[in-house]
Amino acid sequence: MVNSQPNPGPDAWLDARRALLVREKELTRLRDEVSALRRALPHRPMERAYVFDSPQGPRSMLDLFGDSQQLLVYHFMFGPDWEAGCPSCTFWADHFDPMIPHLRARDTAFAVVSSAPLAKLQPYAERMGWRFPWVCSATNEFNREFAVTFSEQEVAGRSPLYNFGTQSAHGQQMPGASAFLRKGDEIVHTYSTYSRGLDILNGTYHWLDLTAKGRDEAQLTHPMAWVRRHDEYPG
């Protein structure tokens, strides 16, 4: 909602802006501190040798790294029986392609993983105009290990199985992002984030945060109720 207070004079605006800058700098320092704590987390060895279906044939997790030492994975909500990908995950995925060359320059590969078969993933990627690597995990337990796919019984039971056991899953498919490091032929899991932890990965939202109206979602039935696939907006 736009601030309806009378417009202040230039001095009052500058004073208010400088006061806000103090808080912004506090947030920046806190974010740097949290990022350092994230990097200091212990590494968890990956005990299973996962193999995914890809347009190039079966690909192991090591294959997803390519020549990079690091790998980032987005857990995209697209169930085996769905006809299209999740609109919210699609909103996030619209930001992926432009960043991939920059990630590669920092020794980091990127891939998207979903439960849906390639016969559904590939047409959807073509429809959306995406080029990022997208693989299918339907033949392995990858999504289960990273707690982004749940059974009907688990969803109905509303047990806190999502986001490190702090939230219940509201569907059989849930979003997330994970980071991995390669040490020779060994892969370690260094970080995962879910729910609002994914917020920092959406550039559109952070641009909207700079505006007078912000995300403007307070009056909606739920956050992101306005989101459509980019080819579904009117006009």
Structure write-up:
It is a single chain. This protein is of the alpha/beta class and 235 residues long. The protein contains 8 helices and 8 strands; from the N terminus they run H-E-E-E-H-E-H-H-E-H-E-H-H-E-E-H. The two termini are 24 Å apart. 21% of the residues are buried.
Which SSEs are present, and which pair or pack?
Elements: H1 10-39, E1 44-45, E2 51-52, E3 59-60, H2 61-65, E4 70-75, H3 87-93, H4 96-105, E5 108-114, H5 118-128, E6 134-136, H6 142-145, H7 152-157, E7 176-183, E8 186-194, H8 203-208
Parallel strand pairs: 4-5, 5-6
Antiparallel strand pairs: 1-8, 2-3, 4-7, 7-8
Structure in a nutshell:
By secondary structure, the protein is α/β, with parallel strands linked by helices. It has helices at residues 10-39, 61-65, 87-93, 96-105, 118-128, 142-145, 152-157, 203-208; strands spanning 44-45, 51-52, 59-60, 70-75, 108-114, 134-136, 176-183, 186-194. Helices cover 34% and strands 17% of the residues.
| Physical arrangement of strands within the biggest beta sheet | 1-8-7-4-5-6
Structural class: alpha/beta
How helical, in percent, are the residues?
25-40%
Major β-sheet annotation? 6 strands, mixed
The end-to-end distance, rounded to whole angstroms, is: 24 Å
Shape: globular
Strand content: 15-25%
> Would you list the SSEs in sequence order as H and E?
HEEEHEHHEHEHHEEH
- Based on DSSP secondary structure assignment, what is the total number of beta strands? 8
The parts where pLDDT drops under 50 for at least 5 residues are none
* pLDDT averaged residue by residue: 96
